[in-house]
Design a protein that fits this description.
mainly beta, twelve-stranded parallel β-sheet, 6% helix, 41% strand
Length: 1475
């Protein structure tokens, strides 16, 4: 029973570090690329100046493509020195040039990796390596291939369970992750199944984090197994869902719930969806309600799993399955705060910092400010340390409104703190303070130290997991070694029975290729087999001289070495043991009936299996370092062969005397050991080397066969001097040469090997009953075989065209006969075939090839033969009608699609290619190529004019190629005519121009040209006409002498108009005639901003009308004249206001007349003029003489004035100097008086005084500072006459302070229930209400009013039917005897008034008397009742006089006289009018 040696390293062949030229350790420094997904390793810490490691500026893009299409990846690489770029794939090699092609474009610096006619087995993850002496950059890209005609063949798992009657599994659904309660005891170092489930649902950027968490360090092994598991999982998922995408891991939401999301489409809507937590199914509801904790909602294609009322026990591993297939897995972790955020007190415009430390790395926390989620932006900075343990929130430019509670949330854990923002008291009022550069806040602890301690704890846990995994693997290796105790003894003299050594790499997912190799077997005398072991370093040990009828083997040691199995005499087998360090122990001199072989050493070298005398097999052991021990001197009746070395060399199998076979071993470096001197009845041959050379199989005396081995470097070892009844031949070398098979004494055959470079080694001197010949070279020459016949030029496979002749030739090195065979049948001349011989040249001629001529042809001359296959077929061809149809040009317009189709007969091995102007077209971009079995189509989308050209299709098979050509014509409007426009003739009546045809006519001939003209100074273009395409000139006869014109020309074809060709300069009709100079300009007036000029027209206009003038100025003490208007903007009048002047500067001016020819001579310059205002007495511009301001507000009196020179401004208050706190602001042309916070005492007449050298001016402004009046006092009602009620009130407290205060009375009755104003502008404190009816309730309100508005009202008592009546005497006297008559009396006298001149005036008094007195007004004892300047009213005893504008003669003594039959009353006052 053979036992396998287990190797704990789980890396498959080609996937280990050697696959990327690594030594198994990370050498260098990891660098971050600007391009995401690029891994950079820098070999040295500091780069020399001007040098750089490789990097990708453009990385390949993942591609999903249909089977049979053209797939390619593109990358752009930088680095100094220039990097070399290599492509590889995860599962397979890319060495086949027919399937993979790497290209480089030096112009665009693009590296392209192409896969023509992509196949499904090419779907894989590809890698691109860029490497120079300073580093390496690597990027991966995925290729997905959509298989055409793919069908799902996998039966559902549940049906298989039912078929097997396993109903328990069907009815009880469980997750593939076993619950913790049922989880079997895990072996130390075993990987948790959750690891793979998380990886299959995670993004690639999270792979490293997950591996670190579970202690997995072999990323290559992980990626390989993960890809295999993903493929299996995708196949399972495809049975139930499609379009699985947008997998979002579980996270905490702002509302305190946790959720994860994914999108997919159910193939069967009735499929069941299950949720698991830690392997146990959990119930859920369709909506997040009060009763169920878990919810699964569907929104469109999106499935959202939510969980509310989060608790610490909710942490776990969650999975979503459809039927029995897992769709998504995510891990919900709980993170705690080691350091929580603290309260921050910050000044206004300062930055505030909140920081915390968490217990486990987390890439992002959720930050909240005043219950609102915060994101990175202009206001907030969210910072995370490299170890992802320290998290910071920076609130930038704090303002008072930022004050509040801020919180950090990590899962269900959170912490919060206040941000207190204090206002900057030192900041000036009304102005924004400057931004501060300081930061406030922080935790107050050493966060870095806390994070480092936590990181050490996490690293320690991670290392413990790694050690457990490593210990488990070592224990497995030791257990495997302990199972084979028979291999631990030395094989030098051991007599053990063992098994052949097989080195395997085994893990859970992959087993490396098993390599069984043998060392060189030399001079062995044995009836068994002696062979050298295989070395992994590329060398094989010599298997020599072993004498044994059996096998003797060295045991396996725990330190990795196998004991020597030497000298053992056994009926078994002697072989060297296998060492884990890569070496095999020596299996030497063993005398055993068993097996003697070199052992395998851990250092990689097998021990020597030497000197063993056995009837069995002596072989060199296999070394893991690539070398095999020598199996030398073995004398055996078996087989003596050189071992195979992995470094490419085989040990010598020399001198073996055996009845079996002596051969050189095969070396992985391409060389074989010498199998020399073997005396055997078997076979002695040189081994095959992977470096291309074979060891010499020389001097072998055998009845078998002695031949040179085949070398991969192209050379074969010499098979010389062999004395054998068998065959001695030179080996075949990959470099094209064969070793010499010389001097062979054999009854068999000695021949030279075949070299790949086309030459054969010499097979010379052979003494044999058979044949000795030189080898065949691929270059067509035969080596000399020392007189023996040989084939110099042999047959090869050819393709012959049906109906055409074909000739096959064989050249010998000597003149000898030969025979031809076809498919094993002999051929003779006749039936269309001719066989001829000319000396040493043999020819087979087929006059007209037919399908029956296809087959395998062979030429035989003695023991020599050569063969080749002939295949008869046809060159592809087109149908004549299809070819004629295809040859017709395809004409399209710009922007349209052009389509070409070419039918052909279906053929095998037919390649279809499309070309445009000799360049092959590829599918992609605007080019679409469709290949069907019987036709091919080409579609060019959105054609441009530049796409015009020759379109060619090529059909190619092994017999030849055929092409068909068509033309693509893309029509467009023509290009513009070629310029410049030439002026052929210009006179006062004709302008003739000329141009050239356009370079590009747009694919169709130009039909005509269109000419347009524009007169200088105008914006309108006028069409003059068109001319035929043959004529490229035009005569314009409608021109005016002296005027200038511009022309533009269009070319026209059936597709439209071209762009225009325009004249560079205007063309004048006739010669230039300029006007004479105008008169000398005169300065009309000057100011500091403007100087007004006037002039006279020129005396001589030269007969050409003048269209305007150009004015120029020159500053004093300068020589440069500056034009004030352009020639194409002439001044049409003979006067002009020059506003482009500087105050105080002196200028002179001149004028030129402009006609159609341009500006004429300039006039003489004007006199110097200074830009300043003329002297003038101050005057005020539209001042306001009255201003009302609310008390407490600022008073701002603005007065504009004009004066030259600037005046001195003085302000007075009631003819007195103003107080110091009153501000005066003087600017040019304006003076302002400002009282910051006014009071009633600021009411006054303010006078502004402006005085300069010319004179002075005064102006008075009355400023009244007041406020809303206070309400009047209590209101009293009194009825003295039936139907009338006297309303009186106590005056408002503001009445004495404000002479403009008056009263307003409103009335309300129970009938109308509405308030209405019954009296306004009352200056008295009484009012008589009329029409007061009995039985109705009345109410009155009295308001005080001034310039600022109304006061609050004073309410009267209710006046009703039975209240406040005048008592009626009941003494028996009749009411008719009561009398109400009384003489006049003055209730409210006149007040003193002092209004300003021009102001309005109200003068009021109240008179009572019965009968109603007659009231007269007197001014200075003159009655003014009839004077129209006074408006006099008498309303129920209230006498008022109104003056609209007070005049000076309105001042004086006013008197009111009231007279009735009972008497007279009067009152008087004085009116003073102020200026």
């Amino acid at each position: 029973m053979f036992k396998r040696t287990k190797v704990t390293d789980g890396t498959a062949t080609g996937q280990g570090p050697d696959a990327e030229n690594w030594d198994g350790k990370e050498v260098g420094f990891r660098k971050k690329s600007k391009v995401p997904g690029v891994m950079i390793t820098q070999y040295i810490e500091k780069l020399p100046e001007g040098k750089s490691h490789p990097d990708f500026t453009r990385k390949p893009i993942a591609l999903t493509i249909q089977e049979g299409k053209f797939a390619f990846f593109k990358a752009i690489v930088t680095g100094d020195p220039k990097p070399t770029v290599v492509w590889s794939r995860n599962n397979g090699d890319v060495s086949d040039p027919a399937r993979y092609q790497s290209k480089y474009d030096p112009n665009s610096n693009e590296h392209t990796f192409e896969m023509p006619h992509v196949k499904p087995d090419q779907a894989d993850t590809y890698k691109c390596f860029a490497k120079n002496e300073y580093g390496q950059a690597m990027v991966t890209v995925v290729l997905n291939v959509i298989e055409v005609g793919f069908k799902m063949t996998k039966a559902p798992q549940q049906q298989a369970e039912v078929a097997n009657c396993n109903f328990k599994k069907v009815l009880k659904r469980r997750s593939k992750v076993v619950p913790k309660a049922e989880e079997p005891e895990k072996k130390e170092g075993e990987i948790d199944p959750k690891f793979w489930e998380l990886l299959m649902s995670a993004d690639k950027k999270d792979y490293e984090r997950i591996c670190a968490e579970f202690g997995v360090t072999d990323f290559r092994w992980m990626l390989k197994k993960l890809n295999e598991m993903k493929r299996e999982r995708e196949e399972e998922q495809a049975e139930f869902v499609k379009n699985l995408s947008d997998l979002k891991p579980i996270h905490i939401n702002a509302d305190g719930t946790a959720s994860f999301e994914l999108e997919f489409d159910l193939l069967d809507p009735s499929s069941s969806i299950y949720l698991y937590k830690d392997g146990e199914m959990i119930p859920y509801t369709k909506e997040l309600g009060d009763k169920m904790k878990h919810c699964l909602r569907k929104v469109g294609r999106k499935y959202i799993f939510s969980m509310r009322d989060l608790m610490p026990e909710d942490a776990g591993f969650y999975q979503l399955d459809v039927e029995d297939v897992n769709m998504f897995s995510t891990d919900f972790k709980m993170v705690d705060f080691l350091v929580k955020i603290q309260e921050v007190k910050a000044m206004e415009r300062e930055d505030a910092v909140f920081e915390c430390v968490i217990s486990a790395p987390l890439s992002k926390l959720m930050w909240f400010g005043k219950n609102m989620p915060l994101e990175q932006g202009d206001k907030y900075d969210i910072e995370v340390s490299e170890d992802k343990l320290i998290h910071r929130l920076v609130v930038k430019d704090c303002m008072v409104v930022d004050k509040g509670i801020y919180a950090a949330c990590a899962g269900i854990k959170s912490c919060n703190a206040w941000l207190v923002v204090e206002a900057d008291k030192g900041a000036p009022k009304g102005k924004k303070t400057a931004r501060k550069t300081t930061r406030a806040g922080g935790s107050g602890t050493d966060l870095q130290k806390v994070a480092q301690e936590q990181q050490q704890i996490l690293d320690k846990e991670r290392e413990e997991r790694k050690e457990k995994i490593k210990a488990a693997r070592e224990a497995a290796a030791e257990a495997a070694a302990a199972e084979e105790p028979e291999k631990t003894a030395d094989s030098g003299a051991g007599k053990d029975k063992g098994a052949a050594v097989k080195v395997e790499r085994i893990d859970k997912t992959s087993v490396a290729a098993t390599t069984t190799v043998a060392g060189d077997s030399g001079s062995g005398h044995s009836a068994g087999k002696a062979s050298g072991g295989a070395k992994q370093d590329g060398s094989h040990a010599d298997a020599g001289g072993g004498h044994s009828a059996g096998k003797a083997s060295g045991g396996a040691r725990k330190d990795g070495s196998i004991a020597d199995a030497g000298g053992g005499h056994s009926a078994g087998k002697a072989s060297g043991g296998a060492k884990q360090d890569g070496s095999h122990a020596d299996a030497g001199g063993g005398h055993s009936a068993g097996k003697a072989s070199g052992g395998a050493k851990q250092d990689g070298s097998p021990a020597d299996a030497g000197g063993g005398h056995s009837a069995g097999k002596a072989s060199g052991g296999a070394k893991q370092d690539g070398s095999h021990a020598d199996a030398g001197g073995g004398h055996s009746a078996g087989k003596a062969s050189g071992g195979a070395k992995q470094d490419g060399s085989h040990a010598d199998a020399g001198g073996g005397h055996s009845a079996g076979k002596a051969s050189g071993g095969a070396k992985q470096d391409g060389s074989h050991a010498d199998a020399g001197g073997g005396h055997s009845a078997g076979k002695a041959s040189g081994g095959a080397k992977q470096d291309g050379s074979h060891a010499d199989a020389g001097g072998g005396h055998s009845a078998g066969k002695a031949s040179g081995g085949a070398k991969q470097d192209g050379s074969h070892a010499d098979a010389g001097g062999g004395h054998s009844a068998g065959k001695a031949s030179g080996g075949a070398k990959q470099d094209g040469s064969h070793a010499d098979a010389g001097g062979g004494h054999s009854a068999g055959k000695a021949s030279g090997g075949a070299k790949q470079d086309g030459s054969h080694a010499d097979a010379g001197g052979g003494h044999s009953a058979g044949k000795a010949s030189g080898g065949a070279k691929q270059d067509g020459s035969l080596a000399d075989a020392g007189g023996e016949p040989g084939i110099t030029s042999g047959l090869s496979d050819i393709h012959a065209i049906r109906g055409q002749p074909a000739e096959l030739t064989v050249k010998m090195n000597t003149d000898c006969d030969g025979a031809w065979f076809k498919d094993g049948e002999p051929l003779k001349s006749g039936g269309g075939i001719s066989i001829t011989k000319d000396a040493n040249i043999h020819k087979l001629t087929i006059h007209s090839c037919r399908d029956t001529d296809s087959g395998l042809l062979r030429f035989v001359s003695g023991d020599l033969s050569t063969e080749g296959r002939i295949t008869v077929g046809d060159v592809p061809e087109f149908d004549e009608d299809d070819l004629h149809k295809f040859s017709k040009p395809v004409i399209v317009r710009v922007g349209q699609n052009a389509a070409f189709k070419m039918p052909f007969q279906p053929q095998e091995s037919l390649t279809v290619s499309w070309f445009k102007d000799g360049t092959e077209l590829k599918d992609g971009g605007g080019v679409k190529i469709v290949r069907e079995p019987n036709h091919s189509r080409l579609l060019l989308r959105d054609c441009l004019r530049s796409d015009s050209g020759e379109i060619k299709i090529q059909l190619k098979n092994p017999f030849g190629a055929v092409e068909a050509t068509s033309q693509l014509i893309v029509l467009d409007r023509p290009g513009p005519p070629e310029g410049p426009v030439e002026t052929v003739e210009t006179t006062s009546s004709v302008i003739e121009i000329k141009w050239n045809p356009p370079k590009d006519d747009g694919g169709s001939a130009v039909t005509n040209y269109i000419i347009e003209r524009q007169e200088r100074g105008h914006s309108l273009w006028t069409k003059l006409g068109d001319v035929s395409a043959e004529k490229t000139s035009f005569r314009d006869r409608n021109v005016t002498h002296g005027k200038k014109y511009s022309y533009r020309i269009y070319a026209e074809n059936p597709q439209g108009l071209s762009d225009s060709l325009e004249t560079a300069d205007s063309i004048m009709a006739g010669i230039m005639i300029l006007s004479g100079p105008p008169g000398k300009p005169k300065v009309v007036s000057t100011s500091k901003t403007c100087i007004n000029l006037t002039w006279t027209p020129p005396e001589d206009d030269k007969g050409v009308p003048i269209i305007g003038y150009q004015v120029e100025k020159r500053k004093k003490d300068t020589n440069q004249w500056l034009a004030l208007n352009a020639i194409n903007e002439p001044i049409e009048d003979v006067n002009y206001a020059v506003k482009d002047v500087t105050e105080g500067a002196e200028y002179e001016f001149r004028v030129s007349a402009i006609n159609e020819s341009g500006a004429g001579d300039a006039s003489p310059p004007s006199a110097m003029a200074c830009a300043k205002n003329p002297n003038m007495r101050p005057c005020f511009k539209d001042p306001e003489d009255f201003l009302v301001v609310r008390a407490g507000n600022s008073v701002r009196v603005k007065i504009s004035y004009e004066a030259e020179p600037p005046p001195h401004i003085t302000w007075l208050k009631d003819d007195e100097p103003i107080a110091p706190w009153i501000n005066v602001i003087n600017t040019e042309g304006m003076s302002q008086l400002v009282i910051p916070s006014s009071k009633r005492s600021d009411s006054a007449i303010y006078t502004i005084k402006a005085k300069n050298s010319v004179g002075e001016a005064f102006f008075d402004v009355e400023v009244r500072v007041t406020d809303e009046p206070k309400c009047p006092g209590p209101v009293e009602l009194e009825q003295t006459v039936y139907g009338k009620v006297a309303v009186s009130w106590v005056p408002s407290p503001d009445q004495e302070l404000d002479d403009r205060l008056y009263y307003v009375v409103s009335q309300h009755d129970s009938n109308t229930r509405m308030w209405k104003t019954v009296a306004d502008r009352l200056f008295a404190n009484t009012y008589t209400a009329h029409n007061i009816l009995p039985g109705i309730e009345y109410h009155f309100r009295v308001y005080a009013k001034n310039d600022m508005g109304l006061s609050d009202p004073s309410q009267s008592p209710t006046w009703g039917a039975n209240s406040n009546r005048v008592p009626i005497s009941s003494n028996g006297v009749s009411s008719m005897e009561i009398s109400f008559e009384r003489p006049p009396s003055i209730l409210v006298p006149l007040k003193v008034h002092t209004p300003p001149k021009g102001y309005q005036l109200y003068m009021t008094c109240a008179v009572r008397g019965c009968p109603t007195p007659n009231v007269s007004w007197y001014l200075n004892n003159t009655c003014i009742n009839s004077d129209k300047n006074y408006y006099i009213t008498n309303s129920c005893g209230v006498c008022s006089m109104y003056i609209l504008r007070v005049r000076e003669n309105d001042g004086g003594e006013y008197r009111v006289v009231a007279v009735n039959s009972l008497g007279k009353a009067e009152c008087s006052t004085k009116l003073t009018v102020r200026d």
